[in-house]
Amino acid sequence: MAGSKRVCSSNQIIYYPQMAPVVITLVSDGTRCLLARQSFFPKGMYSALAGFCDIGESLEETVRREVAEEVGLEVERLHYSASQHWPFPNSSLMIACHATVKPGQTEIRLNLRELEAAAWFRHDEVAIALRRNNPYTQQQNGAFPFWLPPKFAIAHQLIKEWVEKPIRFTLPV
User: Fold this and answer.
1) Which helix (H) or strand (E) holds 156?
2) How wide is the angle at C-alpha 83 spanned by C-alphas 3 and 105, nearest 5°?
3) Distance in angstroms (rounded) separating the CA atoms of residues 60 and 2
4) How far is CA 32 from CA 125, 162, 163, in A?
5) In the chain, at which residue ranges do the beta strands (DSSP E only) sit?
6) Omega into 89 within 30° of 0, i.e. cis?
7) E strands present in 132-173
8) pLDDT tens-digit series, residues 64-102
9) In the 8-state DSSP scheme, what is residue 112?
10) 107 vs 105: CA distance, rounded Å
11) Beta strand pairing status for 6-7 and 75-86?
12) What are the percentages of helix, strand and coil residues in the chain, rounded to 5?
């Protein structure tokens, strides 16, 4: 009888809130990282791939399935990074991983039911985006600059890790 709980005041039934596990994965081909955006993201924002774990599925299986479903790539290796509770909208546990794709297999096959766009970004492009102070500023040509999730989001941490220190991948999937 430990952990978070709520007690109904009318019938005293105890409810234990559920948490949904979600993998968030930064995919790399060794020199570039793959970032994507959903249609509801603010203009110009790109992030790591993410998806809910299915019942009976391991984290490794979820990473492999989500990357294949969203961008049509096959994960070769992965490395766990960190986790973060994300309370809204449905109390998720974000499990952050770095993944590499098989050499020579970097052609993106975008699933438009899941994503609006996905692209490979060079190290220098991502480093500039991390330093950008005001991502919401529209450029003179009307476009919005490429920018990344805010510092409090685990996606930002994944991307920053990739820029600051290349991960040595040792876990085959």
Assistant:
1) helix 154-164
2) 145
3) 29
4) 10, 9, 10
5) 6-7, 14-15, 20-28, 32-37, 49-52, 75-86, 92-101, 117-122, 171-172
6) yes
7) 171-172
8) 999 999 999 999 999 999 999 887 777 889 999 999 998
9) T
10) 6
11) unpaired
12) 20, 30, 50
Which domains does the chain carry? 18-164 (3.90.79.10)
For the purposes of burial, counting CB atoms within 10 Å of the CB of 162, is it exposed (0-12), middle (13-18) or buried (19 or more)?
buried
- The tokens describing 38, both together, are 């959903």
The length of the chain in residues reads 173
> If you compute the radius of gyration of the chain from its CA atoms, what whole number of angstroms results?
18
Burial class (CB in 10 A: 0-12, 13-18, 19+), 75: buried
Cβ atoms of 71 and 158 within 8 Å: the answer is: no
Q: Which two tokens stand for residue 87?
A: 């309370």
d(CA 44, CA 143): 8
pTM for the full model?
A: 0.84
pLDDT, one tens digit per residue, over 99-121 is: 999 878 999 999 999 999 999 99
Kindly report the number of other CB atoms within 10 A of residue 106's CB atom.
16
